[in-house]
């Protein structure tokens, strides 16, 4: 039987994809005590990066938000694996970190990252409210437009 978080994902029309394999020398997540740290995830769909380029230089803020949302979906894939398939174990989204590929004069990184943050709250309710950092970068791996990492407290 699916748990309440799986049911919430279904209500939101989200099906968690097969996780993308790491593209370098790292693991997708680490569990230490009651914390799960999920490595940065790009906006991959079906094993390919779906949103590439730079926000405000070919991509709109809305496209960046959609990319951040997809990144968070990919974070959830690894979080679910870390929780042995049970996302109901998540007690708190502690922190999200966002990286937005953009030109040097772009200053709306926080709006882009809201794509991930808003989904965290939509999925986990009050437990989805989190601390956050968002920074602009000149480029990301494989020309991804956005990358999102996360830290979660689990039961």
Automatic annotation (TrEMBL):
Residues 7-144 form the Endoribonuclease L-PSP/chorismate mutase-like domain. InterPro entries: Endoribo_LPSP/chorism_mut-like, RutC-like_sf. This is RidA family protein. It comes from Limobrevibacterium gyesilva.
């Amino acid at each position: 039987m699916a748990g309440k978080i799986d049911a919430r994902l279904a209500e939101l029309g989200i099906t968690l994809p097969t996780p993308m394999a790491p593209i370098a020398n790292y693991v997708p997540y680490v569990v230490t005590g009651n914390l799960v740290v999920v490595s940065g995830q790009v906006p991959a769909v079906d094993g390919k990066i779906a949103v590439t380029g730079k926000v405000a230089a070919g991509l709109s803020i809305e496209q960046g938000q959609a990319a951040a949302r997809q990144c968070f979906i990919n974070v959830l894939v690894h979080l679910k694996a870390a929780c042995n398939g049970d996302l109901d174990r998540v007690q708190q989204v502690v922190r999200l970190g966002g990286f937005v590929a953009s030109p040097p004069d772009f200053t709306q990184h926080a709006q882009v990252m809201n794509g991930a943050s808003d989904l965290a709250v939509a999925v986990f309710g009050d437990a989805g409210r989190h601390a956050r950092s968002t920074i602009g970068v000149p480029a990301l791996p494989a020309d991804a437009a956005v990358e999102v990492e996360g830290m979660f407290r689990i039961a």
